[in-house]
From TrEMBL:
InterPro entries in UniProt: Diverse_Substr_Oxidored (IPR051312), FAD-bd_PCMH (IPR016166), FAD-bd_PCMH-like_sf (IPR036318), FAD-bd_PCMH_sub1 (IPR016167), FAD-bd_PCMH_sub2 (IPR016169), Mopterin_DH_FAD-bd (IPR002346)
Protein name: FAD binding domain-containing protein
Keyword rRNA-binding carried by entry: no
Top-level taxonomy: Bacteria, Bacillati, Bacillota, Bacilli, Bacillales
A GO MF term: oxidoreductase activity
Cited Pfam families: FAD_binding_5 (PF00941)
Keywords assigned by UniProt, alphabetized: FAD, Flavoprotein, Oxidoreductase
Amino acid sequence: MIATDFDYYRPNTIKEALGLFHTLSENKKSPLYFNGGTEFITFRRIETLYTEVKAVIDIKNINMCHEIKEENDTFIIGASIPLATIETIPHFPLLSKVCNRIADHTSREKITLGGNICSNLKYKEAILPLLLTNCDVVIASPTGLHTVPIQQIYNIQTGKIMLEHGAFIVQFKIDKVFLNMPFTSKKVTANGRIGYPLVTISAIHMPHIVRFAFSGLCHAPFQLDMIDTTLNERNEPLKNRIQKTLEQLPSPILDDMNGSSEFRTFIFHGLVKEIISEFGKE
Ligand SMILES: Cc1cc2nc3c(=O)[nH]c(=O)nc-3n(C[C@H](O)[C@H](O)[C@H](O)COP(=O)(O)OP(=O)(O)OC[C@H]3O[C@@H](n4cnc5c(N)ncnc54)[C@H](O)[C@@H]3O)c2cc1C
Protein backbone atom coordinates (compact mmCIF):
# COMPACT_ATOMS: atom_id res chain seq x y z
CA MET A 1 0.00 0.00 0.00
CA ILE A 2 1.11 3.54 -0.74
CA ALA A 3 0.38 5.64 2.32
CA THR A 4 0.18 9.07 0.68
CA ASP A 5 -2.03 10.23 -2.20
CA PHE A 6 -0.89 11.39 -5.62
CA ASP A 7 -2.79 12.34 -8.78
CA TYR A 8 -2.64 10.08 -11.83
CA TYR A 9 -2.87 11.38 -15.42
CA ARG A 10 -2.83 9.35 -18.63
CA PRO A 11 -2.55 11.71 -21.62
CA ASN A 12 -3.00 10.52 -25.21
CA THR A 13 -0.54 12.84 -26.91
CA ILE A 14 2.96 14.17 -26.41
CA LYS A 15 1.64 17.74 -26.40
CA GLU A 16 -0.83 16.90 -23.64
CA ALA A 17 1.89 15.17 -21.56
CA LEU A 18 4.29 18.13 -21.86
CA GLY A 19 1.45 20.56 -21.06
CA LEU A 20 0.47 18.56 -17.98
CA PHE A 21 4.06 18.45 -16.77
CA HIS A 22 4.30 22.24 -17.12
CA THR A 23 1.00 22.96 -15.34
CA LEU A 24 1.64 20.44 -12.55
CA SER A 25 5.12 21.89 -11.99
CA GLU A 26 3.66 25.40 -11.77
CA ASN A 27 1.21 24.04 -9.17
CA LYS A 28 4.10 22.61 -7.12
CA LYS A 29 3.03 18.99 -7.67
CA SER A 30 6.59 17.80 -8.53
CA PRO A 31 5.25 15.68 -11.42
CA LEU A 32 6.97 12.51 -12.57
CA TYR A 33 6.67 10.63 -15.86
CA PHE A 34 5.35 7.15 -15.13
CA ASN A 35 5.97 4.21 -17.45
CA GLY A 36 5.84 0.66 -16.05
CA GLY A 37 5.59 2.25 -12.61
CA THR A 38 7.52 -0.58 -10.90
CA GLU A 39 10.24 1.67 -9.55
CA PHE A 40 7.92 4.51 -8.60
CA ILE A 41 5.52 2.18 -6.75
CA THR A 42 8.27 0.16 -5.03
CA PHE A 43 10.13 3.17 -3.68
CA ARG A 44 7.10 5.32 -2.94
CA ARG A 45 5.64 2.47 -0.89
CA ILE A 46 8.68 2.32 1.37
CA GLU A 47 9.12 6.10 1.18
CA THR A 48 12.78 6.06 0.21
CA LEU A 49 12.36 7.84 -3.15
CA TYR A 50 9.76 9.92 -4.98
CA THR A 51 8.20 11.09 -1.69
CA GLU A 52 7.83 14.64 -3.06
CA VAL A 53 5.83 13.51 -6.13
CA LYS A 54 2.18 14.62 -5.96
CA ALA A 55 1.27 13.73 -9.56
CA VAL A 56 2.35 11.15 -12.11
CA ILE A 57 1.93 11.35 -15.87
CA ASP A 58 1.57 7.90 -17.42
CA ILE A 59 2.97 8.04 -20.96
CA LYS A 60 1.82 4.58 -22.06
CA ASN A 61 -1.19 5.84 -24.07
CA ILE A 62 1.01 7.92 -26.35
CA ASN A 63 1.19 6.14 -29.72
CA MET A 64 4.86 6.83 -30.46
CA CYS A 65 5.83 5.39 -27.06
CA HIS A 66 4.59 1.94 -27.95
CA GLU A 67 5.57 1.67 -31.58
CA ILE A 68 7.73 -1.19 -32.84
CA LYS A 69 8.56 -0.75 -36.51
CA GLU A 70 11.20 -0.65 -39.20
CA GLU A 71 11.61 2.50 -41.26
CA ASN A 72 14.16 2.44 -44.08
CA ASP A 73 17.48 1.55 -42.40
CA THR A 74 16.24 2.01 -38.86
CA PHE A 75 14.55 -0.15 -36.26
CA ILE A 76 12.35 1.93 -33.96
CA ILE A 77 11.18 0.85 -30.54
CA GLY A 78 9.00 2.87 -28.17
CA ALA A 79 10.07 3.73 -24.63
CA SER A 80 6.89 2.20 -23.15
CA ILE A 81 7.40 -1.28 -24.58
CA PRO A 82 7.57 -3.81 -21.72
CA LEU A 83 10.67 -5.99 -21.46
CA ALA A 84 8.49 -9.13 -21.76
CA THR A 85 7.38 -7.96 -25.23
CA ILE A 86 10.95 -7.20 -26.28
CA GLU A 87 11.92 -10.77 -25.41
CA THR A 88 9.46 -12.08 -27.98
CA ILE A 89 10.13 -9.83 -30.98
CA PRO A 90 12.62 -10.90 -33.64
CA HIS A 91 14.05 -7.51 -34.65
CA PHE A 92 16.90 -6.98 -32.19
CA PRO A 93 18.03 -10.37 -30.80
CA LEU A 94 20.69 -8.91 -28.48
CA LEU A 95 18.17 -6.59 -26.83
CA SER A 96 15.73 -9.52 -26.48
CA LYS A 97 18.41 -11.63 -24.84
CA VAL A 98 19.44 -8.93 -22.36
CA CYS A 99 15.82 -8.11 -21.42
CA ASN A 100 15.10 -11.79 -20.84
CA ARG A 101 17.55 -11.76 -17.90
CA ILE A 102 16.16 -8.65 -16.17
CA ALA A 103 13.87 -9.41 -13.19
CA ASP A 104 11.21 -12.15 -13.22
CA HIS A 105 8.67 -12.61 -16.01
CA THR A 106 5.77 -11.01 -14.10
CA SER A 107 7.84 -7.88 -13.44
CA ARG A 108 9.03 -7.81 -17.05
CA GLU A 109 5.39 -7.57 -18.17
CA LYS A 110 5.37 -4.15 -16.46
CA ILE A 111 8.96 -2.86 -16.61
CA THR A 112 9.47 -0.77 -19.75
CA LEU A 113 12.53 -0.11 -21.86
CA GLY A 114 12.42 3.62 -21.07
CA GLY A 115 11.88 2.95 -17.37
CA ASN A 116 14.85 0.62 -17.17
CA ILE A 117 17.13 3.13 -18.90
CA CYS A 118 15.93 6.07 -16.75
CA SER A 119 15.79 4.03 -13.55
CA ASN A 120 17.53 5.18 -10.38
CA LEU A 121 19.03 1.73 -9.94
CA LYS A 122 22.62 1.34 -11.03
CA TYR A 123 22.23 -1.64 -13.36
CA LYS A 124 20.02 -0.47 -16.27
CA GLU A 125 21.01 -3.57 -18.19
CA ALA A 126 18.79 -2.80 -21.19
CA ILE A 127 21.06 0.13 -22.01
CA LEU A 128 23.92 -2.21 -22.98
CA PRO A 129 22.61 -3.11 -26.48
CA LEU A 130 21.65 0.52 -27.02
CA LEU A 131 25.17 1.72 -26.20
CA LEU A 132 26.75 -0.99 -28.36
CA THR A 133 24.68 0.08 -31.38
CA ASN A 134 25.11 3.85 -30.84
CA CYS A 135 21.36 4.22 -30.91
CA ASP A 136 19.55 7.53 -31.30
CA VAL A 137 17.06 8.62 -28.67
CA VAL A 138 13.91 10.54 -29.56
CA ILE A 139 13.12 13.00 -26.79
CA ALA A 140 9.95 15.03 -26.31
CA SER A 141 10.81 18.32 -24.64
CA PRO A 142 9.18 21.70 -24.17
CA THR A 143 11.24 22.87 -27.17
CA GLY A 144 9.99 20.07 -29.50
CA LEU A 145 10.96 16.56 -30.57
CA HIS A 146 14.72 16.01 -30.70
CA THR A 147 16.78 13.02 -31.82
CA VAL A 148 20.17 12.68 -30.15
CA PRO A 149 22.81 9.94 -29.94
CA ILE A 150 22.54 8.02 -26.66
CA GLN A 151 26.18 8.80 -25.81
CA GLN A 152 25.30 12.50 -25.80
CA ILE A 153 22.69 12.19 -23.03
CA TYR A 154 24.08 9.29 -21.01
CA ASN A 155 26.64 10.04 -18.29
CA ILE A 156 28.78 6.96 -17.59
CA GLN A 157 30.01 8.40 -14.28
CA THR A 158 26.60 9.00 -12.73
CA GLY A 159 24.60 6.51 -14.81
CA LYS A 160 22.01 9.21 -15.42
CA ILE A 161 20.17 10.03 -18.62
CA MET A 162 20.39 13.80 -18.78
CA LEU A 163 17.11 15.28 -19.95
CA GLU A 164 15.89 18.85 -19.94
CA HIS A 165 13.36 19.55 -17.13
CA GLY A 166 9.97 18.31 -18.30
CA ALA A 167 11.37 16.17 -21.13
CA PHE A 168 10.84 12.43 -21.60
CA ILE A 169 12.09 9.65 -23.88
CA VAL A 170 9.66 8.63 -26.61
CA GLN A 171 11.61 6.14 -28.72
CA PHE A 172 14.94 4.54 -29.49
CA LYS A 173 16.19 4.30 -33.11
CA ILE A 174 18.75 1.67 -33.99
CA ASP A 175 20.62 1.43 -37.28
CA LYS A 176 19.64 -1.94 -38.79
CA VAL A 177 23.24 -2.60 -39.82
CA PHE A 178 23.96 -3.62 -36.21
CA LEU A 179 21.03 -5.94 -35.73
CA ASN A 180 22.39 -9.01 -37.45
CA MET A 181 25.97 -8.80 -36.27
CA PRO A 182 27.15 -11.74 -34.13
CA PHE A 183 26.52 -10.98 -30.48
CA THR A 184 26.62 -12.44 -27.02
CA SER A 185 25.50 -11.44 -23.55
CA LYS A 186 26.50 -13.04 -20.28
CA LYS A 187 25.19 -12.29 -16.83
CA VAL A 188 26.39 -13.60 -13.47
CA THR A 189 24.30 -13.01 -10.34
CA ALA A 190 25.00 -13.86 -6.72
CA ASN A 191 22.16 -16.33 -6.61
CA GLY A 192 20.37 -18.15 -9.39
CA ARG A 193 19.03 -16.98 -12.75
CA ILE A 194 17.13 -13.94 -11.52
CA GLY A 195 18.78 -11.11 -9.63
CA TYR A 196 20.83 -8.00 -10.00
CA PRO A 197 24.02 -8.57 -11.94
CA LEU A 198 27.37 -9.04 -10.28
CA VAL A 199 28.60 -8.52 -13.81
CA THR A 200 26.76 -8.47 -17.14
CA ILE A 201 28.76 -8.16 -20.35
CA SER A 202 27.13 -7.74 -23.76
CA ALA A 203 29.23 -7.72 -26.90
CA ILE A 204 28.83 -7.46 -30.65
CA HIS A 205 31.29 -8.59 -33.26
CA MET A 206 31.63 -5.70 -35.70
CA PRO A 207 33.59 -6.20 -38.95
CA HIS A 208 36.99 -5.34 -37.40
CA ILE A 209 36.45 -5.15 -33.67
CA VAL A 210 34.45 -6.69 -30.85
CA ARG A 211 32.61 -4.03 -28.85
CA PHE A 212 31.88 -4.59 -25.18
CA ALA A 213 29.41 -3.00 -22.75
CA PHE A 214 29.26 -3.67 -19.02
CA SER A 215 26.76 -3.49 -16.15
CA GLY A 216 27.21 -4.37 -12.48
CA LEU A 217 30.98 -3.95 -12.64
CA CYS A 218 31.14 -0.24 -11.79
CA HIS A 219 28.75 2.36 -10.43
CA ALA A 220 26.98 2.65 -13.82
CA PRO A 221 26.77 0.71 -17.09
CA PHE A 222 29.32 1.75 -19.71
CA GLN A 223 30.85 1.18 -23.12
CA LEU A 224 34.22 2.75 -23.88
CA ASP A 225 36.07 2.69 -27.22
CA MET A 226 39.38 2.72 -25.32
CA ILE A 227 38.48 -0.56 -23.60
CA ASP A 228 37.39 -2.11 -26.91
CA THR A 229 40.76 -1.19 -28.41
CA THR A 230 42.61 -2.75 -25.47
CA LEU A 231 40.62 -5.98 -25.52
CA ASN A 232 41.07 -6.33 -29.30
CA GLU A 233 44.88 -5.95 -29.26
CA ARG A 234 45.59 -9.48 -30.45
CA ASN A 235 49.37 -9.10 -30.32
CA GLU A 236 49.11 -8.75 -26.52
CA PRO A 237 48.53 -11.82 -24.31
CA LEU A 238 44.87 -11.92 -23.23
CA LYS A 239 45.82 -11.78 -19.55
CA ASN A 240 47.62 -8.45 -20.10
CA ARG A 241 44.73 -7.04 -22.12
CA ILE A 242 42.27 -7.80 -19.32
CA GLN A 243 44.64 -6.37 -16.72
CA LYS A 244 45.05 -3.16 -18.72
CA THR A 245 41.25 -2.87 -19.05
CA LEU A 246 40.95 -2.81 -15.27
CA GLU A 247 43.05 0.38 -15.29
CA GLN A 248 40.72 1.98 -17.86
CA LEU A 249 37.42 1.55 -16.01
CA PRO A 250 35.38 4.74 -15.61
CA SER A 251 34.97 4.23 -11.84
CA PRO A 252 36.08 1.77 -9.13
CA ILE A 253 34.76 -1.79 -9.20
CA LEU A 254 31.61 -2.14 -7.07
CA ASP A 255 32.01 -3.59 -3.63
CA ASP A 256 28.68 -4.14 -1.88
CA MET A 257 26.47 -6.67 -0.13
CA ASN A 258 25.89 -8.52 -3.45
CA GLY A 259 29.58 -9.11 -4.11
CA SER A 260 33.03 -7.86 -3.21
CA SER A 261 35.17 -6.03 -5.77
CA GLU A 262 37.58 -9.00 -5.73
CA PHE A 263 34.78 -11.41 -6.65
CA ARG A 264 33.47 -9.07 -9.37
CA THR A 265 37.02 -8.77 -10.78
CA PHE A 266 37.29 -12.56 -10.85
CA ILE A 267 33.97 -12.87 -12.71
CA PHE A 268 34.94 -10.08 -15.09
CA HIS A 269 38.15 -11.96 -16.03
CA GLY A 270 36.22 -15.17 -16.67
CA LEU A 271 33.45 -13.57 -18.76
CA VAL A 272 35.83 -11.53 -20.93
CA LYS A 273 37.91 -14.66 -21.62
CA GLU A 274 34.77 -16.61 -22.57
CA ILE A 275 33.54 -13.90 -24.93
CA ILE A 276 36.89 -13.38 -26.60
CA SER A 277 37.27 -17.10 -27.12
CA GLU A 278 33.68 -17.36 -28.44
CA PHE A 279 34.56 -14.77 -31.09
CA GLY A 280 37.97 -16.35 -31.82
CA LYS A 281 39.87 -13.21 -30.75
CA GLU A 282 42.38 -14.78 -28.32
C1 LIG B 1 11.65 -7.54 -9.22
C2 LIG B 1 12.59 -6.60 -9.95
C3 LIG B 1 13.83 -7.07 -10.36
C4 LIG B 1 14.70 -6.23 -11.07
N1 LIG B 1 15.87 -6.73 -11.57
C5 LIG B 1 16.64 -5.94 -12.37
C6 LIG B 1 17.80 -6.45 -13.01
O1 LIG B 1 18.18 -7.60 -12.82
N2 LIG B 1 18.50 -5.63 -13.82
C7 LIG B 1 18.12 -4.34 -14.07
O2 LIG B 1 18.76 -3.64 -14.86
N3 LIG B 1 17.05 -3.81 -13.45
C8 LIG B 1 16.30 -4.57 -12.64
N4 LIG B 1 15.20 -4.05 -12.04
C9 LIG B 1 15.02 -2.60 -12.08
C10 LIG B 1 14.02 -2.27 -13.02
O3 LIG B 1 14.47 -2.59 -14.29
C11 LIG B 1 13.67 -0.76 -12.93
O4 LIG B 1 13.29 -0.43 -11.65
C12 LIG B 1 12.50 -0.62 -13.82
O5 LIG B 1 13.06 -0.91 -15.04
C13 LIG B 1 11.80 0.64 -13.91
O6 LIG B 1 10.97 0.56 -15.11
P1 LIG B 1 9.50 1.05 -15.12
O7 LIG B 1 9.06 1.06 -16.54
O8 LIG B 1 8.65 0.32 -14.16
O9 LIG B 1 9.78 2.55 -14.66
P2 LIG B 1 8.94 3.59 -13.79
O10 LIG B 1 8.80 3.13 -12.38
O11 LIG B 1 7.71 3.96 -14.53
O12 LIG B 1 9.97 4.81 -13.87
C14 LIG B 1 11.25 4.73 -13.30
C15 LIG B 1 11.96 6.08 -13.48
O13 LIG B 1 12.24 6.30 -14.86
C16 LIG B 1 11.59 7.50 -15.32
N5 LIG B 1 11.10 7.21 -16.67
C17 LIG B 1 10.41 6.12 -17.07
N6 LIG B 1 10.18 6.17 -18.38
C18 LIG B 1 10.72 7.33 -18.81
C19 LIG B 1 10.82 7.94 -20.09
N7 LIG B 1 10.29 7.39 -21.18
N8 LIG B 1 11.47 9.12 -20.19
C20 LIG B 1 12.01 9.70 -19.09
N9 LIG B 1 11.96 9.18 -17.85
C21 LIG B 1 11.33 7.99 -17.72
C22 LIG B 1 10.48 7.76 -14.34
O14 LIG B 1 10.12 9.12 -14.30
C23 LIG B 1 11.11 7.28 -13.05
O15 LIG B 1 11.98 8.26 -12.55
C24 LIG B 1 14.32 -4.88 -11.32
C25 LIG B 1 13.09 -4.40 -10.87
C26 LIG B 1 12.21 -5.25 -10.20
C27 LIG B 1 10.88 -4.70 -9.77
